[in-house]
Amino acid sequence: MTLRRRSLMATLGLALFYSAVGLSANADPLDVDALREMREGDMRKLVIHDAPMPLGGREFTDPSGANLSLAAYEGQVVLLNFWATWCAPCREEMPDLEALQLEWGGEDFQVVTIATGRNSLPGIKAFFAEVGIEALPILLDPRGQMARASGVLGLPVTVILDREGMEIGRLQGGAHWNTENARAILSEVIANQPDA
């Protein structure tokens, strides 16, 4: 093979390589393997899916009983937390979720907490007042329909949703969400989610 032909083949090979990299970057901007490698401590329990998947349940209520939907959060990365007042690990992680919402809540990111099952509104308000929760919403799934449709089998469960409302990761059980490692993972997700 001549030098000119080898040079042409090498150029063509590089062009194909960079085209493939570009196409895969557009199809899946989040590097799930890198995200999995980042997990430490409590975050080791975080299951990162190979590809985004639909979340079964999408509807819940506010304290007045008005129907709401996760569609209201599309365009934002959401940390969706299913919890209950009677669940000790749920109560333990709530201040961490509050800290994330206070610091990061806005156009790009929201922490959405949904009390599922039998939770009295006075009990939720008393708990929030007791531990100083002010930035998290009081949202309800009183019959547990959203939780069941979302595959929640125990509490707490925290789900990371992309900007299109698709599930990209899930953690079963309590976790410290305000640690350096949890923040690094969430930062990576937020930074690598294209604007909707």
UniProtKB/TrEMBL annotation:
Tree of life domain: Bacteria
Keyword Zinc-finger: no
Gene3D superfamilies xrefs: Glutaredoxin
Annotated keywords: Isomerase, Redox-active center, Signal
InterPro entries, per the entry: AhpC/TSA, Thioredoxin-like_sf, Thioredoxin_CS, Thioredoxin_domain, Thioredoxin_ResA/DsbE_sf
One annotated GO molecular function: disulfide oxidoreductase activity
SUPFAM superfamilies documented for this protein: Thioredoxin-like (SSF52833)
Signal peptide per UniProt: 1-27
Domain Thioredoxin: 24-191
Record-given protein name: Thiol-disulfide isomerase/thioredoxin
Lineage: Bacteria, Pseudomonadati, Pseudomonadota, Alphaproteobacteria, Rhodobacterales
